[in-house]
Write a structure and sequence with these properties.
It is built from 20 helices and no strands. It is mostly helical and 483 residues long.
Amino acid sequence: MQFSTTSTARPSPAEARTTTHAVQAEAQAEAVAQEETVSAARRRLCMAALMTAAILAALDTTIANTALPEIAVDLHSTEATIIWVTNAYQIAMIAALLPFAALGESTGYRRVFIGGLALFGIASAICGSSSTLALLVVGRAMQGVGAAAIMSVIAAFIRHIHPPTMLGRGLSTNALVVAIGFTLGPVVASTILAFASWHWLFRVNVPVAAAAIALAALYLPDVAGGRHRFESASAGLCTAFFGLLMFGICMLENGGGSIAAIVCMLASLACAAALIRKQRGHPAPMLAVDLMAIRTVRLSSLTSICAFATQSLALVSLPFLLQGAFGMPVTRTGFVIAAWPLLVAVMAIVVAPLSDRYPSGLLCSVGLVVLTLGMVLLATMGTDVSSWGIAGRLGICGIGFGLFQSPNMREIMSGAPAARSGGASAVVAISRLMGQTLGAGLVAQCFHWWPASGSRMAVALGGACALLGCVFSAMRLRKGGSV
């Protein structure tokens, strides 16, 4: 694409903005033309590669949770320290997501996607051969980096391979597949653990990742979406900001050294300040501070963090509660817990027409009230409750969470300017991952504070987080401008 100029004078800010918008408009028109060239048959093969990778990333967010008690025994670890198996995966994803998104815009989505899949497969092999907690945590961190690369470009690929009239269908397919991945995580874990050791929870990823790489190499188009040069210094600052911040928070929550944790968090804030200063005036900053200044986006992000913290508090702590206090076999635990993500997947279909009739803030608030009720019922249930009774309580949580999830994501995307849709998508992902990581860290803190009843207290704390999220959500119902 070539542009001619009639003057060598430095353009004014207004002219620069006009030129930027023109470039964006031309790039969008070019993308639409490219989308129309993707045949229906190739589109299905592309989606097969993308959804295989998406379900891998979603599965590994929950698949290890069911086996955490068994892994802790086998690796001679405590309940509090074994939580780092979950934390390492989440922290790495948060730290690497935004830099990989920027790298995909610069060097091409397919390169980032295939590289992420390859790293994910190698890391899975490391996890599957781990004999120490340290090696397992390192492998999980590598998995998180690979998953971040995968997740950072999936939505961009979906936009490229679908014509505008089918884009909603493609994104809905992705949302449904991710929900199914969360649903299958506990079930797959229980099935594998019934016949093999926990190592096979990770080994099964290797052939699946290899199949996805083959499909991606053959059918995914080699495209890049942006016109901005990748800034490695900004990427390093962004990674350091999120990584140090979440690592410090998790250290505090897991009873680690408070001084070291505070130093990490202060260093993360210094990195954030340097990143903001470096990207001041950038049309698409890697750290979306311009979007967080919008009231609707900010409140929706806080709502998401609270809701996903609730989900993580429940799904990480419940295996300990059910297998410990309730004496439930590990093979049954996963099937019972699957009631939550199963209802979330169902609600993803049910809530779609409701979003067009009712305000997103109202739907989210009602959903979080239902989620709070379900968490209270879980926290107060007696040890004589049946498996069906536990599944019913988890189903209530799933209904509430499903009623919140899609409308809240829509609120973030619609609240952001159209030109910043990519940044809004990053806000959605970062809010979810931060909530999940904070929730997992709080579970470990509950084990420190209440050694005898940590898992039950974690569920109760999840109810409090859901209620706080409801408050943030309800604040969106007040019409108060954009700040």
